[in-house]
Design brief:
Strand order of the largest sheet: 1-2
Order of helices and strands: HHHHEEH
Number of helices: 5
Oligomer: single chain
Distance between the termini: 35 Å
CATH architecture of one domain: Orthogonal Bundle
CATH topology of one domain: Arc Repressor Mutant, subunit A
Strand content: under 5%
Length: 132
Amino acid sequence: MLTRGFVGVPLLFLERMAALKPYSLNPAEALFVICLMAHKWDERAPYPSYRRLALWMGKTESYARKIARDLETKGFIRRRARIGDTNEFDLTPLFRRIVLHESSPVTAKPGARKPAGSHPTRPMGRRPTRVA
């Protein structure tokens, strides 16, 4: 599986995407952004086709375009048209907003439980080894 590559998603993105104000990211928008991250190889803005994004998301191309419009309307991305080529998707506005919200505490809903296996000092699902 790793031979196909992987996407490193910043933990801060996952922690803050639903807490951004005045707009948050819904799951479809978050998946769209993660798909864009998979195409970000250097300092330039990623430029995948809507067809590829839709294929990866299991959605239609028109739905992928709608998500891009919604993200742009919310001020999270900037699309730059390239004549005869795919759009560039600038993620800078989204990442700036996430960093600005970094100092604000993430509040859990009242009565919310911690996920099973969660522990502040070890990755989820990993148990310490016992030494006999």
